[in-house]
Amino acid sequence: MRDTRESRLLLVLLVAVAFALITVDIRGGDDSPLNGPRTAAASVFGPVESGISRLVSPVADGLHSLRDSGSQADRIRALEQQNELLRQQLSSSDLVKSRDGQLTKLLGVAGAGQYTIKVAQVVAIGSSQDFSWTITIDIGSNDGIQRDMTVINGEGLVGRVTTVAPTTSTVLLAVDPRFTVGARLEGSGEVGFGTGEGDAPMRVQLLNGHADAKVGDRLVTFGSENDKPFVPGVPFGTITSIVNTPGELTKTVLVQPFVSFTKLDLVGVVVQPPTTDPRFAVLPPKPAPTPSNTAPASTQPSATKPTSAKKKG
């Protein structure tokens, strides 16, 4: 519509009519003459509005859910990161506690035997040349380590150093079949030689075929000439059984090592032997025997009735 005098007059007239209708509707209240047209308009346009609302609502809900799912995914990721961090902290704390306990026990053994040690960490299991029972530790010739030094941990004998590099060393474990160590029996002091048997208990041959050895007796290292490869007095196992070998000049016993070779972490290389043989001083105290719960049955005199003599008739 062009801006003319007639169009302006029409606009003014329409505005005046609208104000008049509003005034009539307000004053009429419930009896307003416009209620009928309003109801008719609602009945016509209401279904249309409802249909549009039903069409639009899923879209709006979908947009809200996408927005919410994004924020929920962010929260889930944040919680997962926090949980992973807590797991790492817990694992690190457990590792620190474990190594602290290992170090305390290792220093206790070294102190009891008067061994001067260099503490090392196991960094690999198995040799690069073959599949023997060996470990690799993180100290070498730069740290004063030499071939044929004794290796211990907080439980006892681990093995001996076989190969030395500047920063690492290879240790042959006591359970390796090529391993041989001099042994001394607790108490009697009987000596013999122990050999590794892999997963099975070590086999020890006592030189005295009549040696008084029994299950539960413990053994320590006998020591080598010039303390290489073994220093004396290192605990290495408990007798689990006596092998019946009639007619043999030696007595064979099976020995369960003190060391858990599948759990090695911190070890100590003995770089200075003790001035005197500690013999059995490094062995921990024997556990007290478990008291028996069965008490011997007490014998009580049986109550017997006196027999009465029959009178002769």
Salient structural properties:
313 residues; six-stranded antiparallel barrel; 2 helices; 33% helix; disordered C terminus; six-stranded antiparallel β-barrel; alpha+beta; Cell/Rod_MreC_2; MreC; Thrombin, subunit H
What do these coordinates show?
The chain has helices at 5-28, 35-113, and strands at residues 116-125, 134-137, 150-152, 157-164, 169-173, 180-185, 191-195, 202-206, 218-221, 235-243, 251-257, 266-272. The chain is of the alpha+beta class and 313 residues long. The protein has a six-stranded antiparallel β-barrel with strand order 1-2-5-4-3-12. The longest helix is centred in the first third of the chain and has 79 residues, at 35-113. InterPro entries: Cell/Rod_1, Cell/Rod_MreC_2, MreC, MreC_beta-barrel_core. Residues 291-307 have a biased composition (Low complexity).
Number of helices: 2
Mean of all residue-level pLDDT scores: 79
Count of β-strands:
12
Second-tier CATH architecture of one domain: Beta Barrel
Instruction: Determine the N-to-C terminus distance.
Output: 162 Å
Summarize the amount of helix as a percent range: 25-40%
The low-pLDDT segments are: 297-313
Highest-level CATH class of one domain:
Mainly Beta
Q: Output the CATH homologous superfamily of one domain.
A: Rod shape-determining protein MreC, domain 1
Spatial strand sequence of the major β-sheet: 1-2-5-4-3-12
Main sheet properties = 6 strands, antiparallel, barrel
Structural class computed from helices and strand pairing: alpha+beta
Rg for CA atoms: 46 Å
Strand content: 15-25%
Shape: elongated
CATH topology assignment of one domain: Thrombin, subunit H
Along the chain, the helix and strand elements come as HHEEEEEEEEEEEE
GO cellular component, one term: plasma membrane
Function: Involved in formation and maintenance of cell shape.
Keywords: Cell shape
Protein name: Cell shape-determining protein MreC
